[in-house]
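Figure 6 in text form: structure in, sequence out.
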């Protein structure tokens, strides 16, 4: 992992807030900061099939305004004592350009603003946020317009029973990131896990060789205890006190946003596992399903 924080600046996505959060992270971790402005619309204005004197003047004017904005953002970060570099990308699609830049830098974090996406926007699978969740190999810090408290609360959303993470490497990565951030900001780390009662009871039923009446209460208790044992083991291995370990029945994407608000969370850390090519085109990832509903920043982790 490199010693740079890469901040993706979008003019319509509260650029000052994103730059400030990225500069704050760079200061906390002793990193340099690279501000990358991403605006593929300029490429459209300069497309050879559309170019005219008028569109060229518009493109030049927008580009000049972008240069000035980047100078101001860089100066603000420099005032914190952070070493800053800037670049501007007009490449399309934006996500590909960001991923390529991240591969060159191997940053500690990629920081980007995020806003609400309508159901129609989510359906067409073209939005940069989701592409980055799928394709980035480094931690992705999604910024929302939320003021952090003096002693922040960090929620680590884990799943120690996930069948695609049998060695729990992703959960440990989530916890490691949570512990690191909490230590840097004198914050409190909260461990959170959900288990899906009806879904898992259904999987038990599929193992039966003949129809029979299921002992629902017994199965529910057994599943709850199995999940809790693995969750408690993860907490114990990381010295997380019992008061900060929470397990609730239900679906994560339905419960996590409410839990985060109840806890007064400033950051929620979640995991994203690599999937097959066909599945990567589907919006089935929990992180994607809660992105719009969390009020605070979101940190997407990958297994080491």
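Output sequence:
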């Amino acid at each position: 992992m490199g010693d740079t924080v890469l901040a993706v600046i979008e003019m319509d996505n509260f650029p000052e807030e994103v730059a400030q959060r990225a500069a704050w992270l760079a200061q906390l971790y002793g990193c340099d900061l690279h501000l990358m402005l991403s605006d593929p619309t300029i490429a459209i204005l300069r497309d050879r099939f559309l170019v005219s004197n008028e569109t060229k003047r518009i493109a030049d004017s927008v580009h000049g305004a972008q240069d000035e904005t980047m100078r101001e953002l860089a100066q603000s970060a420099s005032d914190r004592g952070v070493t800053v570099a800037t670049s501007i990308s007009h490449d399309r699609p934006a996500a590909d350009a960001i991923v390529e830049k991240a591969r060159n830098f191997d940053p500690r974090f990629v920081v980007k603003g995020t806003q609400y996406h309508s159901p129609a926007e989510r359906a067409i699978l073209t939005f940069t946020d989701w592409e980055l969740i799928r394709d980035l190999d480094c931690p992705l810090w999604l910024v929302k317009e939320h003021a952090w408290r003096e002693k922040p609360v960090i929620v680590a959303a884990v799943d120690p029973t996930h069948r695609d993470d049998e060695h729990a490497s992703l959960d440990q990565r989530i916890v490691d990131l949570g512990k690191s951030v909490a230590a840097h900001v004198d914050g409190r780390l909260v461990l959170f896990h959900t288990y899906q009662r009806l879904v898992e009871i259904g999987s038990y039923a599929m193992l039966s060789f003949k129809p029979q009446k299921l002992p629902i209460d017994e199965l529910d208790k057994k599943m709850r205890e199995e999940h809790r044992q693995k969750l408690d083991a993860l907490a114990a291995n990381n010295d997380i006190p019992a008061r900060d370990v929470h397990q609730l029945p239900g679906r994560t994407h339905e419960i996590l946003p409410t839990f985060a608000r109840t806890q007064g969370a400033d950051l929620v850390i979640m995991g994203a596992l690599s999937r097959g090519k066909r599945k990567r085109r589907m919006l089935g990832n929990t992180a994607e399903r809660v992105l719009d509903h969390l009020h605070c920043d979101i940190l997407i982790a990958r297994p080491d």
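Caption detail: Confidence is low (pLDDT under 50) at residues 277-284.
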